[in-house]
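Design a sequence for this backbone.
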């Protein structure tokens, strides 16, 4: 079908991505899931295909493609049904390296971004803390500037690629803090982003065991008196809050696109099961109550896809001006993917509830996406503020 978003070149790229995933990823993904991480050779394979640098410049080995090429890749990555794998890759390619690409100086881009694009170095983003996630004002990790280095102290939690990363992009407090966890935005001031090598003395790692996203290699990372060179600030000192505000929008559209792929996979599994399974003398696919559930889910997925594509288009035109659309897309797609996975498990019955089934894995993995990159409650608060509070203020 013709599309206002995708060209024939995009469609050819989609088939290339689909073939790569079928040959080089899907057969090995169960083993990676069991080991709770992607091996080095998998990262290298993604890098050699150019899939870790779709948005990055040719200067660092990327292909500088348009954002809808990434939509193609991320949708197909979502469709293979491994949430942890897609989380690991997306954090590396669209989150941690985003800040280096946008604000890092030439030396940082060559030393960290170029090998990350090639799959030779693994990147992780360290923002969330045990007592602070979406509320950046509550962050307590600190850096103290010395004459020839910074000293970093703090703990970061739920760091994807946490135990396998070669470097972390770390958000820490570098300036004055109001001492108030939230309110008025004052506590969000004085934040900076740093790139920190994972082999620095003072870094310790505790791997965690989440319900889903098992290949994402989540970990708690402790930084205790870690020396960070002065030239490893990403962008200007104390500009981290503003960098994150831009990066969050990309995180949210990426999460939304991945959720579309996951929802597609859940719907496919459901259709296949309903056609195969019989009950009460008929196929499950012939029972009206079941058919109407599938009709509603398919319709909701089609609507969500259009919303997400529009948000991507809006972000591509104006990243900071797309907060409403990115928040809506993230909320809609991730919540729908969760409902799709839940319905799929329900319609699979007792066999779907077994731990080693793809349906159960989809159920576990989908839930995490409503929390990561800004939980649904935060997305609703952002949307409500834009739809109600700002509209009210403009009329008074």
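Sequence:
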């Amino acid at each position: 079908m013709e599309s206002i978003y995708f060209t024939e070149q995009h469609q050819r790229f989609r088939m290339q991505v689909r073939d790569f995933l079928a040959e080089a990823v899907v057969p090995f993904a169960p083993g990676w899931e069991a080991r709770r991480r992607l091996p080095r050779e998998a990262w290298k394979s993604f890098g050699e295909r150019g899939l870790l640098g779709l948005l990055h410049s040719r200067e660092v080995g990327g292909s500088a493609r348009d954002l809808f090429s990434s939509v193609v890749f991320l949708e197909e990555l979502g469709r293979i049904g491994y949430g942890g794998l897609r989380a690991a890759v997306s954090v590396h390619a669209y989150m941690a390296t985003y800040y280096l690409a946008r604000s890092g100086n030439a030396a940082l881009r060559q030393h960290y971004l170029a090998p990350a694009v090639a799959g030779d170095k693994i990147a992780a983003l360290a923002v969330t803390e045990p007592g602070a996630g979406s509320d950046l004002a509550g962050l307590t990790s600190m850096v103290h500037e010395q004459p020839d280095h910074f000293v970093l102290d703090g703990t970061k939690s739920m760091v994807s690629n946490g135990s396998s990363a070669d470097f972390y992009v770390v958000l820490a407090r570098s300036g004055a803090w109001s001492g108030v966890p939230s309110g008025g935005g004052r506590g969000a001031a004085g934040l900076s982003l740093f790139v920190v090598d994972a082999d620095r003395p003072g870094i310790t790692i505790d791997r965690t065991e989440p319900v889903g996203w098992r290949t994402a290699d989540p970990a708690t990372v402790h930084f205790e008196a870690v020396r960070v060179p002065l030239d490893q600030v990403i962008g200007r000192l104390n500009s981290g809050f503003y960098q994150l505000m831009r990066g969050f929008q990309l995180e949210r559209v990426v999460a939304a696109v991945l959720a579309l792929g996951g929802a597609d996979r859940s719907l496919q599994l459901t259709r296949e099961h309903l056609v195969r399974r019989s009950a009460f003398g008929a196929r499950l696919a012939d029972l009206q109550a079941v058919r109407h559930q599938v009709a509603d889910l398919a319709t909701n997925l089609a609507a969500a896809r259009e919303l997400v594509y529009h948000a991507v288009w809006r972000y591509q035109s104006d990243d900071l001006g797309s907060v409403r659309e990115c928040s809506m897309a993230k909320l809609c797609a991730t919540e729908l993917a969760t409902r799709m996975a839940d319905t799929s498990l329900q319609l699979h019955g007792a066999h779907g509830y077994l731990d080693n089934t793809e349906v159960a894995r989809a159920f576990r993995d989908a839930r995490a996406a409503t929390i990561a990159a800004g939980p649904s409650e935060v997305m609703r608060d952002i949307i409500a503020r834009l739809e109600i509070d700002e509209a009210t203020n403009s009329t008074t």
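The chain has three domains: 8-122, 124-238, 242-394.
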